[in-house]
Amino acid sequence: MTLSHPLLTALHLARGLAALALVVGASCASAGPSSGPTSGSEEEIRLDRGGFAALSREAPKVLVVVAHPDDELVATGALYLTGARLGGACDVLTITDGQGGFKYASFAEALHGVPLTEEAVGRRELPAIRREEQRRSLELLGARMLVRLQQTDHRYTQDRMEVLAEGAGVWDLAAVRASLDRRLAGERYDFVVTLAPTATTHGHHQAASLLALEAVARMPEAERPVALCCQVKAADAEDLGVPPALVDAQAEGEDLTAIRTTPAPFTIDRNEPFGHRDRLNLKAIASVAIAQHLSQGTMLGYIGAGDVEEYWLFDVSPPLAAARAADWFVQLQDPSFPEREYRSSAGTNASR
Ligand SMILES: [Zn+2]
């Protein structure tokens, strides 16, 4: 693999021009496919947060648990506003290595000079490529750490039992559970965010959410993080504000996927404008984050899409969860960009 393709270079230049003060050279010089970590081994990547707000103990601490490298972008608004703007520690735990994304790599195979859409080649090369795509994407959002468990992304299925059944042998479930338990106990996150485990989504997505919820349920109630699931919808979607129909799952007598359907879900409006003359919004930032996943055609198709992030509160959450979540989303409503006064030297569009 090379990262010297003009398009990739242009993307890195764009990052620099966006005044994010990221150490571009250093962030691009690391692992290529041949230096990717071993399948099944757990990897922690400390992310370069550049000039984003310094990490603050006062700000919310968030863990997003997902199956594939890119799933976390469902929660782009919460990640960016919490991590980059508030200085909250935002970590993303990705269970699989993303090797199953080879079918969608048509655009990237020429960039890398490797026939990634051939299954054997894609499965071999994509884990390291997607690792770098995910790392770059999360650095744009001000996330703190990327944890990759590198379990096998075996195939598309809506049957979560292909990975969750005892003896399925696709994921090392004991290792996944142990990692989640260790992290939740050690980091004491305020919030855990998953995708909404509905029956019509990828079985890996369902499984990742259920494994995260099981881990939350294993904690003493008072020590649990507030658990929420996220969905992104179009502004004119018919199911706006409609609770998702989640799969049934029990653990230790608790209904893991029960959610509070009242009041309405917590929301982030990706079209809320900010910056000079209100020319920026979260949808643009989400699109830039998505655009880092050049090997994934399905993700690139979401550029410019998605208007509202809805967050539903799981009942497995600790006492006062609703108030704590409400406080988080109030904080996210103030992106606190500096207001500048420009003179005519800035142009005829200098005034707000
Ligand atoms: Zn996925």
CATH H-level name... which superfamily?
LmbE-like
Which kinds of small molecule does this entry bind, naming each only once? zinc ion
Q: Averaged pLDDT, please?
A: 89
How many strand segments? 12
Give me the side-by-side strand order of the main sheet: 1-4-3-2-5-6-12-9
The total tally of domains equals 1
Which ranges are low-confidence, i.e. pLDDT below 50, for 5 or more consecutive residues? 1-36
| Alpha-carbon Rg, integer | 20 Å
Please describe the biggest sheet, giving its number of strands, its sense, and whether it closes into a barrel: 8 strands, mixed
Q: Summed up, what is this model?
A:
Helix content is 33%, strand content 15%. It is α/β, with parallel strands linked by helices.
Question: How would you describe this protein?
Answer:
The protein has helices at 6-17, 24-28, 76-85, 106-112, 119-140, 161-164, 173-187, 203-217, 282-291, 297-300, 321-332; strands at 43-46, 62-66, 90-96, 145-151, 191-195, 226-233, 250-251, 254-255, 266-269, 273-274, 280-281, 308-313. It has 352 residues and is an alpha/beta fold. It has one domain (6-336): Rossmann fold (3-Layer(aba) Sandwich), CATH 3.40.50. It has an 8-stranded mixed beta sheet, sandwiched between helices. It has a two-stranded antiparallel sheet with strand order 7-8. A two-stranded antiparallel sheet has the order 10-11. Helix 5 packs antiparallel against helix 9 (282-291) and helix 7 (173-187) crosses helix 8 (203-217). It is globular and about 70 Å long. It binds zinc ion. Zinc ion is lined by residues 67-68, 71, 202, 205.
